[in-house]
Structure formats: C-alpha cells, structure tokens
Design brief:
With 225 residues, this protein is of the alpha/beta class. The protein has helices at residues 17-39, 43-56, 63-76, 81-97, 106-117, 130-138, 163-173, 187-195, and strands spanning 5-8, 121-125, 151-153, 180-184, 199-203, 215-217. A six-stranded parallel beta sheet has the order 3-2-1-4-5-6, sandwiched between helices.
Length: 225
C-alpha cells in the first residue's frame, strides 16, 4: 500500500466495543444528570443543551426534560453530536480521577507508534466527540498517545456513513484520497470512505462482524503497511 496517512475509527477498531458499552456509557449515564444540573448555566454546556432541544424538537424543555432526552439517547446509542460532547466532559472527570483508563488493543498501540515513526500521519475519525477521543488516547492503557496523532474528526464534519464526510477529511488533510487509508470495523463506514476515493481495511475482531468488499484483517499486525 502506498499510504501517507491513516485515519482510524476507535470503537471495534483500536479499542474494545465492550469498553465503550460496559464502562464509558454506564459511567456517563450515572454521572450525566448531576453534571448537567450543576453546569447548565455554563455558556458551552448551555449551548449544547439548546442543541439537544433543537434536535429533539422540544425547544421549551426544562433542564430535567433535557436530561431525560439525553438518557434515552444513551440507551439508544444515538450518535448525537451534543450528547457526545457532554459525555466527553463527564468522562474527563472519570479519566482524571483514575476511575478507568482508555482501552486500546496492544496490536493497535504498537502499530500506530510504528507507523508514526515511519513518517505516516495518523488521524482519528469517530462518532465520539474530539474531546472524548483525546481523553481515551491521553489516558490509554498504553499511556498518553495523543502526540502521535496529527488531528481528530468527529460527526461535526459529517455522518460516518456519508461519503461527503470523507471528502471533507481528504480536503483538510491536503492529500490525494488514494494516499489515505481508513480503518474501521463497520462496512457502511468503509463503503463511504471508498466512495470518497480512500483505501480501506476492515478490522474484524469479532466473528459476528459483517464483512463487505474490503480487505479484512483480525488485528493491526495484519495490515499490509
């Protein structure tokens, strides 16, 4: 592969799906209500709560009503940008207290470090907020990995199954699309990246993961870079 940059997903790719669903989501569900109540007057949080109201079509919802919306979205694993931003703020508290560390597969950490040392630029594109991404890699099982990444993208650049999102990333990276490799466990995301001209590799860490017309590997050690 002639690759100058790698853009990687997180959940199911660099990190365990179980970590997200069994650690991060329950922690946010438990801590988010009190966080929203105590920070609802903060300018940034207030703007995020207004974004939740607009997306839910409940512009007049009081704070407790917004909390109910957020809790239902967490239960649905909804990819709402405002929810992800608020979760990121709650998770920061948990990471900084040492309540948990960010899970990263050893093969992912090892190869990401190797690729960076070889001069390949690394980026993250995840449905989790940029803040949440930086927290996970900054407090990861392998230590602080933030410095190896040249940039982070979340759903503010667009939905992960929309080719236009990947075209926007290509423009920001300033490379030819064919020089960029996108890694994910999700076929729909890989299809969108390929439609934008990127190279693609699917991580299939679980036997149940569906596959499509992409190179499939079990872990980062099998990626032919």
């Amino acid at each position: 592969m002639n690759v100058k940059a790698v853009v990687t997903d997180i959940e199911g790719t660099t990190s365990s799906i179980a970590f997200v669903h069994q650690v991060l989501f329950p922690y946010a569900a438990a801590a988010l209500p009190d966080y929203v109540r105590s920070h609802a007057g903060d300018e940034t949080v207030s703007a995020l709560l207004d974004e939740v109201r607009r997306e839910a079509g409940q512009q007049s919802a009081a704070t407790e009503g917004v909390i109910d919306i957020l809790q239902s979205w967490i239960a649905q694993d909804r990819k709402a940008t405002a929810l992800k931003a608020l979760q990121g703020r709650v998770w920061r508290h948990g990471y900084e207290r040492g309540d948990f560390t960010g899970h990263i597969y050893p093969d992912a950490a090892r190869n990401l470090l190797r690729w960076r040392q070889a001069g390949i630029a690394l980026y993250v594109y995840s449905s989790g907020s940029v803040e949440a991404q930086q927290l996970l890699f900054g407090h990861s099982d392998a230590g602080d990995l933030r410095a190896i990444f040249s940039g982070y993208f979340d759903t503010r650049i667009g939905p992960k199954r929309d080719a236009a999102s990947y075209r926007a990333i290509v423009r920001q990276l300033g490379l030819a699309a064919a020089e960029i490799l996108f890694l994910s466990d999700t076929v729909g995301e890989l299809d969108a990246a390929r439609a934008a001209g990127m190279q693609t590799v699917q991580l299939r860490r679980e036997e149940s993961t569906a596959t499509g017309a992409h190179t499939v590997v079990r872990d980062f050690d099998q990626i032919p870079l």
